[in-house]
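Board notes (copied after class):
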Amino acid sequence: MTGAAPRDDLAARQAELVAALVAGGPPPAGFAAGPLAAARAALLGKRAGEVARHWPLLAARLGAAWLSTFAAWAADRPTAGSLRDGWDLARDLRHRGTLPPSGADELAVREAGLRYDGHTAPRPRRLPAVARADGAIAVQVAGRVRLLRPARR
């Protein structure tokens, strides 16, 4: 088969380009850094928009800082899908102590309704589940999640 080597070379070059665009890889040989950086920024912006659709409270609460926060977090991470990217970001922000309260509520609701280990796709929880968030408790029973917050005085 005479075309195998050129196809393998093309596949390797394409993989390098994809890694440079979405996973923080180095620019492949023959690509200008400026246009590559512009394409990378555009793809991160599109990815941030998709994640914001799945995590609207987190994105809204971060406001103008949403794009820069997401881009800094996602710069060297390939996408795992919009739902999982937002989940991983929210967990990272929680770990660093910078998760806003409405984002914490959104994360608690997700964690009460779905099981996600950070590696495989989220799956629905079958048993009643409880998750805590910033003074609130998310409770899932029979497939419905409710966020309970103590009365404020």
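Comment from the instructor: The first strand starts at residue 114 and ends at 115. The chain has one domain: 9-20+31-148.
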